[in-house]
Predict the structure.
Amino acid sequence: MGDLWDVSFSKDEQPIHTVKISPIWMSKFEVTNAQFCVFLNERGNAVEGGMPWIDLQDEDCLIMRRGRRFSPKRGYWYHPVVEVTWYGARAFAEWLGCRLPTEAEWEYAARSGGRNVMYPNGGMLDRGDANFAGVGGKDSWKWTSPVGSFPPNLLGLFDMAGNVWERCWDWYTEDYYSRSPDTDPQGPTTGAHRIMRGGSWNYSRLNCRTTIRGMNAPDDAVGDIGFRIVRDVE
Ligand SMILES: [Ca+2]
Ligand SMILES: [Ca+2]
């Protein structure tokens, strides 16, 4: 794990270290608005950590509520869910008997099984490879794009670079890599922010690197943060 190329402006991708992770299944796409609505229609939009799971009041939210029924806004069924808190992401995962990935699991997956690649595609990230800030070429999206609009990495995982940041299980601390255990690291025991990975439509190419460590408060809901889920292999 870590910044093998020494391109980060932060110290938090150092020191470079090796970890072992146990086998997992990972969802190939970011969780969509359509999928999140199935969850909301079964469980409602509960308040957890002082915030509703999804912030329907924010104009960036791509889900609406009519009476008791939640549905994606027109044209956004297959776009990644946004404006969802960390608690909402965790609740969705647990509803399916799954969980959020640790950042170690996420990085291993983004790097197509731990390969030494700065971007999931194995080369330089171009407009044909991901939805990042701005538009051009195949990236015609100013905001989110439908999941799977760009080629997958070698593990068949889509949008590991860009589209939306993906919430992970771990708390964030800048120095965690200096004391991380070498098997199935779970992150610090407490903190103020949770990890998010992969960059988004709102961030530059460099922020879509496989190793960059983003962070966000667990009760925050933002228009460029979503998630995907994992399940342990039994
Ligand atoms: Ca874009
Ligand atoms: Ca993503």
Remarks:
- Residues 33-43 form the longest helix (11 residues).
